[in-house]
Amino acid sequence: MDCHLGKGAKYKLRQGQDLAWGAAEDQTRDWRAIDPRRSEGPIPVECRSASCGTCWVGVLGGAEKLADVGAREGKKIKEFGYIDTAEPKPLIRLACQAQAQGAVSVVIPPWNGQFGKYLKSLKSEEAAAAEVSPDQKGQSAEQNHAVN
Ligand code: FES
């Protein structure tokens, strides 16, 4: 069975294989040369575990041929802000989680592959802001004491 990507592009999928693994096995083109986000195949991926949000795709056709959204995928697509639905087969999926039972057609958003990096940068900034050296803590306490 095939996964269609639009503009005549497609790749082969095995029964029960998730969209991202099927994409990674497609070596018919130099995907990275076409688009640097595509490090392994036509669909950009990073974590492969529903953690980063990088691999999300829009389902144009065959949504009913994808396995139902699992608990982790359902939770994460809401957290990432992609879609908030209890539908078992929504039109936005994480390619690393969506297992195909037949031919599907998907679209890769232009910003796919950037979202995971954006979230990582936010977490790094938060971690840096939360990190306070013991000297800084002492100064803050002294400054607070002086104000009071
Ligand atoms: S590759 Fe990270 S969520 Fe799919």
What is shown here, in short?
By secondary structure, the chain is an alpha+beta fold. The protein has five helices and five strands, in the order ββααβαββαα. It is globular, with a radius of gyration of 20 Å.
Give a verbal description of the structure.
With 148 residues, the chain is an alpha+beta fold. The protein has one domain (2-130): Ubiquitin-like (UB roll). 33% of the residues lie in helices and 15% in strands. It contains five helices and five strands; from the N terminus they run E-E-H-H-E-H-E-E-H-H. The protein has helices at residues 19-24, 31-34, 71-79, 115-130, 134-147; strands at 2-6, 9-12, 56-61, 92-94, 104-107. A five-stranded mixed beta sheet has the order 2-1-5-3-4. The chain is globular and about 55 Å long. The chain starts with a strand and ends with a helix. The relative contact order is 0.19. FE2/S2 (inorganic) cluster binds at residues 45-48, 50-55, 94, 96, 116.
Topology diagram in text:
Elements: E1 2-6, E2 9-12, H1 19-24, H2 31-34, E3 56-61, H3 71-79, E4 92-94, E5 104-107, H4 115-130, H5 134-147
Parallel strand pairs: 1-5
Antiparallel strand pairs: 1-2, 3-4, 3-5
The structure holds FE2/S2 (inorganic) cluster.
